[in-house]
Write a structure and sequence with these properties.
The chain is of the alpha/beta class and 426 residues long. The protein has a domain of 283 residues: 4-Layer Sandwich (Metallo-beta-lactamase, Chain A), CATH 3.60.15.10. The radius of gyration is 21 Å and the shape is globular. The two termini are 24 Å apart. Bound molecules: zinc ion.
Amino acid sequence: MVIADRQADLLHNHDFRLATFVYRQSIVEVACFTGNSNNMVLAIKKILFSGAAGVVIAIGALTAVSCSMMGEIPSGQTLEKVKRSPQYNVKEGAFSNRLSKITSPIPTKITHSSTKDASLWQLLAGNGRPTVSLPTVKPDLVKFMEPSDDIKVIWFGHSTFLLNLSGTTILIDPVFSDYASPIPWLVKRFQPPALMLRELPTIDIVVISHDHYDHLDMKSVKFFSDKPTKFITPIGVGSYLLGWGIEADKITELDWWQHHKVGSTEFIATPAQHFSGRRGYNNNQTLWASWVFRNAQHNIYFSGDSGYADHFKEIGEKFGPFDIAFIENGQYNLNWRSVHLLPEETAQAYFDLKAKRLFPIHWGMFILSYHSWFEPIVKIDQEATRQGINLVAPKLGEVIAINDQLKLHRWWQSLITDDAKKDGTE
Ligand SMILES: [Zn+2]
């Protein structure tokens, strides 16, 4: 479908939202007694009558951890700062997208029309996950840290990756927890990360795209609380970091189009079309963003999470061409296409941005949609072949240098035959 047609559809499509997000958040609401608590009260009565006090204690502990993971949204002086953002809609009391009605209330009825029909229960049962571990390389940190004219990259799966940009180490959307969710059995990672947090090299900067659990992870943030690492986030996200022990002078919050320089590296917050929230209610209290990282030698784009819109073209015109663009490609669904890219839209964004290489992210570690783990990479690979896109897709943990010697090895191909049969797509 032509992108312009999609855009027109998108403007009229209000009945969408990330289904797994809704489901996950509704469970958390019950756990935190913030929503309709009748079912929870009944459940607790049953537990008490059965004498299972230990279970109650476990629920209490789980509730405390889950609520702490939800974090603190802007309030007081921080909220006043947030309200001054041009992206903040004072009347609605929330951030909004450039296209109106994108952040309309979450529908209670979940509809979907992915490439293949599947139920929420199948999703929760783990359908779509790889049947074996994806190949992981133990990162060669000596190679990664070696002084070089090339951008060095290590991908940890989903949207977590590490850059060495002329000696500055930048960690993006670090999620090293076992689950991208406040509930410890929902959204389980496929396998352990290629490095534990304590094994990471010294990180100069952490950049966050937005506050969803698959991008902002309490455990990973807290790890840096006693380190000199600085954080750069969209406006409002700093409230979570403060609540988790990061000192205020280590946090820089930027609004769209604002710049911040650390050493030789400039960070520019750029628009994205998405939404935010960790509680399932009172959403969009913190901003979401895409990012440009650049210095005298290199120019990089990171999409965060975003639906397709004209911001890609605008960013390409303002800041392109990019040496490499890390663009979300995974966890999509036709019903959510206003807030997530379909693979052909990822390809279109690459062209809009005037990027020289495309590194697809937001796949390869968590299942948040109805498609199989491999569908996003297979589809973007087809688009890349068809449209002459220079695709970069290393194994998890592999250290790569972005230069002309870089070759594409389709490591996923040998893994997908059995999974495709199981998935019914072959
Ligand atoms: Zn995401």
